[in-house]
Amino acid sequence: MYFWKQNILAVCIFLLVRRSSCDEVQGKSAGGMAELINTNITVLSARSIHMAGYHLHEIQHLTIINAPRLNHIVVEDLTKMPKLKSFYISQAPMLERIAPLPPLPLLRTFIVITSGLVEVPNLSHVHDSKRDKTPYLQVIDLEGNHIRRIPAHALRISADHVSLNLNLIEEVPAYAFKNAVISKLSFKGNTKLSQLDENAFAGILLLRQLDLSSTAISTLPIVGLENLQVLKIEKTPTLKYIPSIYDLRQLKEARLTHHFHCCAFAFPERHDPERHKIYEVQIAHLKQNCGKQKTSDTRKKRSLGAIKKTVKDDKWDYDDNSTSATNEEYGFKGDPDMFDSDSSEDDDQFHDLVEANSTKPQFSYNCEALIISKRTVECTPKPNALNPCEDVMGWTWLRVSVWLVVTAAVVGNLAVLIVLLAATSELTVPRFLMCHLAFSDLCTGLYLFMLAVVDLRYYGVFFNYAYDWQYGVGCKIAGFLSVFSGQLSVFTLSVVTSERWFAITYAIYLERRMSLSAAAKIMIGGWLFSVVMAGLPLAGVSDYSSTSICLPVESRNVGEGVYQGSLFLTNAVAWLTIVVCYVQIYRSLGGGGEKYGGRGAAAAAERRIANKMAMLIGTNLLCWAPVAFFGVTALAGAPLVDVSHGKVLLVFFYPLNAVANPFLYAILTKQYRRDFMMLIARTGKFNWLVEKYKLATTPPPTAHTNPSANPATLVPLVEYNRTQSQVSKENGDALF
C-alpha cells in the first residue's frame, strides 16, 4: 500500500512539472516573440530555435542579441516560420555573410546591426511569393557592420527605410538600386565612401530621401534623383559640387555642409546659366500658349465653370511640343502615372509611408492669369556674414580699388628691395631692417593680388568655384601670406623704431649702437614668431577656409578665440611700442627748438622730423585700429560689420602700411635716392638723370674743399657743447 502511494505521488509530480513546462513554452510563443540572448549557438536553424523551446509556426518576431559564435544562418529554415514579421540580430561579430533570403510574405523588418557583415544580403526575393499582398519592407537596417560592397540586385526591393550607416563602404557601383522603390536611403557615417558611380542611382523607381552625411564624396550624381525631395550631406567637407535645381526637380529640403552650396538653389540663373535659359524659354512658350488658349476660349465662349473644371482636372490644352518640353524639364518622361498609388501597390500599405506624389509639373496653370510659382528649396546652412552669395570683392568700385592698392604695394616694395639689395655700400642695420620690412609688406601685396585675380577670374559665379578656392592650396597660401606678413611687419616696425630711438638717444656713444649680428638674431626670432602664427591655422587652430578672403576670422572654440586674440594683442603691443619710442625720440631732439634759441634751421628740422613721426604713427594707427576694433567685437560675439563690408577694411586699411612704409621709410629718404642713383649709374643709362642729381646734391665750396678760400675760423668753446648736442638732431634728421 505504501508503495502504490509513492508511485501515485511521483506520477502526479511528473504531470505537474510537465504541465508547467508546457505552459512555459506556450507562454513564450504566445506573443510570437522568440528571443535568444547571450547565446552560444554557431548556426541559426530551425533545430536551434526549437531546442530553445519555441514553436516555429507561432514565431512572429525573431531576436538574437549577443551571439559571439554565430557564423551561419540557415535561411531556408526561415520559411518554416510562416508568421515571421521581424528579424533582428545584434552583436554577432562572426556573422560575415547571409545567403539570399527566400520568400517571406509577412516579413516587414530586417535588422542586422553591430555585427560582422561584409556585404549586403540579397533581399530581392523576400516578397516574390504570390501570396504576398503587401510587397514592401518597413525597415532594412544594416548599421554598424563591416560592409564593403553592395552586390548587384541585392536591394531590388520596396522599402520605406534602408539604412547602411556606419559601415566601410568605399564605392556605390552602377545600378546598385535598379528597380528598387525606396522612401529613405541612408549612407551616413561611411567615412570611406568617396566614389559614387554616375549611374549609382540609375534605374531606381522611386527615392524620396537620401542621406550621405559624414562621408567623403566630392560630387553627387543626378541620374535617378529626379524625384528626390530631401537631401542630406552634412559634415562632408569634401563635397565640391552640388547639382542644379533643374536636375533635382522635386527637391524641397537640402541639409548640406558648406554655405556656398545653398547659393546654387537661391540663384539658379548664376549656378547653371544654360539650363536657366532653357527654363525661361519654356516659360515664355507657356505664356504664349496660354494667350492662344485664352483667345480660343473667348471665341468658344466657354463658361467660367467649365474653365474651373478644366483646370481642376488638369486637362492641359497647350500643344504637344510645349507639353513635351515641360515634362522633360521637370523630369517626367514616359508614363506620367508610373508612380501613382493606383498603378502598383495597395493604397493603405506602402504608399502611406512613401507618399508618392503626382507627377504633374510644379506650377499652377491658369489662363486667366498665368501664375508661375517659383520653386524654393529650404537649404541649410544658409549663406551668412562670413560666406555670402557674392564674389570675393562684392562691389565694382572695390574691385577697381584693390588693383590700385596691389599695384602701389607691389611696385613700391619691389623697388625698395631691388635698390637696397643691389647697393654696393656697406650693409647697415637700418638697411638690413628695411629689407625685412619691404619683404613683409610685399607679401601683403601678393596676398591682395591673389584675391584680386580670383575675383576677376570667377566674376559673377564665384560660389560655383568657392570650394576649389577656399579649400584648395591657393587659399591656404594666401592666408599664410596675410598673417605672416602682418605679424612680421609689425614686429619689424617695432624693431626699426626701437633701433632709431636707441641710435638717437645714444648718438655720441658709438659702442652702444645695435650691431648687425644683434639685429639678425632679433629678426630670426621675428621670423620664427611670424611663421608659427601663420602656420597654426594650417595645423588646425582656426581655419583659412572659413571665408573667401582666407583670413582666420571664425571662432568656434576657446583655442581659436585665444589665437585670434593673440593676433590683436600683438598689433596693440607693437603700436604702443612705436608710439612710446617716437615720443621719446621727439623729446630727445629738443621738443620745439627752444634749446637753440628758436633758430630757424633747428626749428625747421624738428618740425620736419615731428611731421614724419606723426605720419608714421598715424598710418600705423589707421592700419591696425579699425581692423583690431571690428575684430575684437566679432571675437566678443557682437560683430559690427559682416565680411561684405569688412572687405573695405581689407582693401583700404589693412594694406595701408604695406603701401605707405616703402615711401615713408625708404623711397623718400636721402640714402635711398643716393643708392638708387648709384644703381642707375652702374647700368650706364640715363646719364642725364645722374648728372642732374649730382648737381643738385653737390655742396658749395668750403675751406676744406677749396684751399684758396679763407681759413676756417675756430669754434669758440662756448659753442662746442651746442654743436655736440646737435649731433643727435642731425642723426634723427638723417634717419627720417
TrEMBL record:
Alphabetical UniProt keywords: Cell membrane, G-protein coupled receptor, Leucine-rich repeat, Membrane, Receptor, Repeat, Signal, Transducer, Transmembrane, Transmembrane helix
Membrane topology: Multi-pass membrane protein
Keyword RNA-binding: no
Main location: membrane
InterPro entries noted in UniProt: GPCR_Rhodpsn, GPCR_Rhodpsn_7TM, Gphrmn_rcpt_fam, LRR_dom_sf
Signal sequence bounds: 1-22
Compartment(s) where it occurs, according to its Swiss-Prot or TrEMBL record: Cell membrane
Domain G-protein coupled receptors family 1 profile: 412-665
Keyword Plastid included in the entry's annotation: no
Segments passing through the bilayer: 397-421, 433-454, 522-542, 562-585, 614-636, 648-668
CDD domains linked to this entry: 7tmA_Glyco_hormone_R
Gene3D superfamilies: Rhodopsin 7-helix transmembrane proteins, Ribonuclease Inhibitor
Family as reported in the entry's similarity comment: Belongs to the G-protein coupled receptor 1 family.
Name under which the protein is recorded: G-protein coupled receptors family 1 profile domain-containing protein
Organism from which the protein derives: Chilo suppressalis
Upper taxonomic lineage: Eukaryota, Metazoa, Ecdysozoa, Arthropoda, Hexapoda
